[in-house]
Write a structure and sequence with these properties.
Ribosomal Protein S8, Chain: A, domain 1, 6% strand
């Protein structure tokens, strides 16, 4: 009987030591503190949501406001505000590069922002409808000018005066007429080879021939044929 009782007593758990009791006490304190913090955070979210619901409601009732910009918020607060706005039937967007600086803007449905307006906010710029309209008109005008130029084709520049008439006192009227006749022939029969355009005569020979032709025309004689 004594042996049986001894075996039972030895199998029972020993009472916790002082160190084990202190560890459990600290764990209970940490759990209590964590629970308290969670409850505080939950209460703060509830209060924040009520405040956002009030601001959104005032915004809807104010007919003079079409958009509203909020102060920078953290990710959780922005999420709550977006949810409130969606329930209210409005439109909301977040802007800002850094997470700490991101803010929310809300818009009434009938005044939803255009792509150009959203692009301005993304670049940190204020939206100016008048400047945007002027920029749009300038862009349309430039596009119309490009289209008109493409339809007209390449621009052909025509000289104000004919070079043959302008320099006839230098090369002689007869030579000018010959040049005009040659130019007309070239236009009629197409392009002339480069070799045919070259004058193999020297300047002195060409000037002598021009003077001779001029003297012959003045005297009424026939021009000799050249080989």
């Amino acid at each position: 009987m004594a042996d049986l009782l001894g075996s039972i007593l030895s199998s029972m758990e020993k009472p916790p030591s002082f160190g084990d009791q202190e560890t459990r006490r600290k764990a209970r304190e940490q759990a209590t503190q964590l629970k308290k913090l969670q409850e505080q955070e939950k209460q703060q979210k509830v209060e924040f949501r009520k405040r956002m619901e009030k601001e959104v409601s005032d915004f809807i009732q104010d007919s003079g406001q079409v958009k509203k910009k909020f102060q920078p918020m953290n990710k959780i607060e922005r999420s709550i505000l977006h949810d409130v706005v969606e329930v209210a039937g409005l439109t909301s967007f977040s802007f800002g590069e850094d997470d700490d600086c991101r803010y929310v803007m809300i818009f009434k449905k009938e005044f939803a922002p255009s792509d150009e307006e959203l692009e301005s906010y993304r670049h940190g710029e204020e939206w100016d409808p008048q400047k945007a309209e002027e920029k749009r008109k300038l862009k349309e005008l430039a596009q119309q000018q490009e289209e008109a130029a493409a339809q007209q084709g390449p621009v052909v520049v025509s000289p104000a005066s004919d070079y043959k008439d302008k320099y006839s006192h230098l090369i002689g009227k007869g030579a000018a007429k010959d040049a005009a006749h040659m130019l007309q022939a070239n236009k009629t029969y197409g392009c002339v080879p480069v070799a045919n355009k070259r004058d193999t005569r020297s300047i002195e020979e060409a000037m002598n021939e021009i003077r001779a032709k001029k003297r012959l025309r003045q005297s009424g004689e026939e021009l000799p044929t050249t080989s």
